[in-house]
Amino acid sequence: CCRAWSAPCSAAAAAGWSTERQGDVSWLRSPGGERFFSIGVNVVDGEPDREPRMGSLQHRFSSVHPSPQAWVEATRRQLLGWGFNTLGGWSRREAEFGLPFTPVLSFGQQVNAIWGDPFDPQTPARMREEAKRRMARHPDGPLLVGVFTDNEIGWWNAPLLLWFLKQEPENHTRQRLLAFLAERYPDFAAFRRDFV
């Protein structure tokens, strides 16, 4: 349900993280060249000004430690003790933990990359600019493994189909959808076999 990349992300590639395929298996390689099996935890967040999320370590640690740095140190020890080696999405203070991390950019939810007009010729440039803006929130360097573009975005078959069929004629994605349907289905009976 998530899409992540390492090598194509310029910051991650500069940091030295890579993938290597051996037979049918892809391996993540650390900047030192070792195979790395990422065992991450999401939402490592001890900020008292934020609403805690389900699965957050926030309540457990933020009220017990006298400073954010004390919280980071205690949380890092606990995560390593539990066998985690990576900070996952929606975590804070990533650079302070000294652990590899993989932020989530949330393009689908927050930038309307899915329900807008993904086939609009302006969309790739808009997404590149948004990626730069969102990556500026995260520390660059050797601990940045890669990024997830999204998490559990709504690629539901029927709602997505109906949404784009109802868009204005100038919507590029609607135009692509209609061209695909016309090519794929010679008549309405063929369409009904797949969708009814």
3D structure, described in words:
It contains 9 helices and 6 strands. With 196 residues, it is α+β, with helices and mostly antiparallel strands. The longest helix is centred in the middle third of the chain and has 15 residues, at 68-82. The two termini are 26 Å apart. Strands 1-6 form a two-stranded antiparallel ribbon. A two-stranded antiparallel sheet has the order 2-3. Strands 4-5 form a two-stranded parallel sheet. The radius of gyration is 21 Å and the shape is elongated.
What order do the helices and strands come in, and which of them pair?
Layout: E1 2-5, H1 10-15, E2 18-22, E3 25-29, E4 40-41, H2 58-62, H3 68-82, E5 86-87, H4 94-97, H5 107-111, H6 123-135, E6 147-151, H7 157-165, H8 172-184, H9 188-195
Parallel strand pairs: 4-5
Antiparallel strand pairs: 1-6, 2-3
Short description:
This protein is α+β, with helices and mostly antiparallel strands and 196 residues long.
What features would you highlight for this structure?
disordered N terminus; 196 residues; 9 helices; two-stranded antiparallel ribbon; two-stranded antiparallel sheet; alpha+beta
* Count of alpha/pi helices: 9
Q: Strand fraction band?
A: 5-15%
- Coarse structural class: alpha+beta
> In one word, what is the shape?
elongated
Mean residue pLDDT: 82
Low-pLDDT windows of residues: 1-14
- Estimated radius of gyration: 21 Å
Q: Tell me about the largest β-sheet.
A: 2 strands, antiparallel
Give the end-to-end Cα distance, rounded to a whole number of Å. Answer: 26 Å
Instruction: Enumerate the strands of the largest sheet in spatial order, edge to edge or round the barrel.
Output: 1-6
* Helix/strand order: EHEEEHHEHHHEHHH
What is the helix fraction of residues, given as a range? 25-40%
Strand segment count: 6
